[in-house]
Specification:
AAA+_ATPase; 11 helices; binds magnesium ion; transport; binds adenosine-5'-triphosphate; Rossmann fold; alpha/beta; translocase; six-stranded mixed beta sheet; three-stranded antiparallel beta sheet; ECF_ABC_transporter_ATP-bd
Length: 276
């Protein structure tokens, strides 16, 4: 994104304008795992919708793999490279059987039957949901529905999946299943993952965190660097992972602990200290 600004113009009498994105410059490389965080209304969804041209820049440009999203000839190619998964799992499934739903994208691309079958198999397998293939979506849990939506993206062979709060409506088990699947897609198949989340425990699992506030990117870095400056985050109304607060409190009590920020590593570290 180069100097990208997005302005929502309301067609009311006052002709109100909202600058939702304010001169964004951002480069995302193939194979990155990125979390975008920020308070409500900071511009996260608006940013995400530019990645596959669901929204177009008011000023500046968004280029995906050399293609400009606002070039109408390229938009379908862009959408084959970048797909989006949204918050509500119920709004994303069209067919009455899981495997038909996964087939929907490839069928629209006009692919051969055999190719479609292969892609469905790969999508089901890569997300470990082969057992769901014949299920009607209304019998799935929220997490299983989100995995089905992600499988649809995989079947399109998209290189990048953008997920806008995909776990917001899920229970902890569903949240874990989705995060685990995303990590595996990233590690095994080098798929670029961009996840918007309000859960800091999820953000911490990314390789890079982008912090948005009032339409701007105010921080961009590795989780350990972002959460090191926790006061900055708290100032704009964001929380930090529980582990960061626990480490902080224990350090203040004089315990020699490294700056850990994820539950798993903290648990290991504390276990070692206790067993000493
Ligand atoms: N269709 C729209 N028309 C007018 N204003 C909009 C529209 N969509 C978003 N906005 C405004 O743009 C700003 C950014 O909204 P956006 O949805 O990108 O925020 P967000 O960071 O995704 O918030 P949330 O965490 O609540 O999902 C907000 O002030 C919002 O009110
Ligand atoms: Mg949003």
């Amino acid at each position: 994104m180069k100097n990208l600004t997005h302005i929502f113009r309301e067609n009311d009498e006052k002709k109100t304008e909202k600058i939702a994105l304010d001169n964004i410059n951002l480069k995302i490389d193939k194979g990155e795992f990125i979390a975008i965080i920020g308070v409500n209304g900071s511009g996260k969804s608006t940013l995400a919708k530019h990645f596959n041209g669901l929204l177009l820049p008011s000023e500046g440009e968004c280029i995906v793999d050399g293609m400009k999203v606002d070039d109408s000839e390229d938009i379908w190619k862009v959408r084959q490279k970048v797909s989006m998964v949204f918050q509500n799992p119920d709004n994303q499934i069209i067919a009455t059987v899981v495997e038909d739903d996964i087939a929907f994208g490839p069928e629209n691309m006009g692919l051969e039957r055999e190719e479609i079958k292969d892609r469905i198999e790969f999508a089901l397998k890569s997300l470990h949901i082969e057992h769901l293939r014949k299920m009607p979506p209304h019998l799935l849990s929220g997490g299983q529905k989100q995995l089905t939506a992600i499988a649809g993206a995989i079947a399109m062979r998209t290189q990048c999946i953008v997920l806008d709060e995909p776990t917001a409506m899920l229970d902890p088990q569903g949240r874990n299943a989705v995060m685990k699947a995303l990590k595996e897609l990233h590690e095994k198949y080098n798929i670029t993952i961009i996840i918007i989340t309000h859960f800091m425990e999820e953000a911490v699992q990314a390789d890079r965190i982008i912090v948005m506030n009032d339409g701007k990117i105010i921080q961009d870095g590795m989780p350990k660097d972002i959460f090191k400056q926790k006061e900055n985050l708290k100032k704009i109304g964001l929380s930090v992972p529980l582990a960061v607060d626990i480490v902080d409190a224990l350090q203040k009590k004089g315990l020699k602990l490294a700056n850990l920020f994820d539950n798993e590593n903290l648990a290991k570290e504390l276990q070692q200290l206790i067993c000493k």
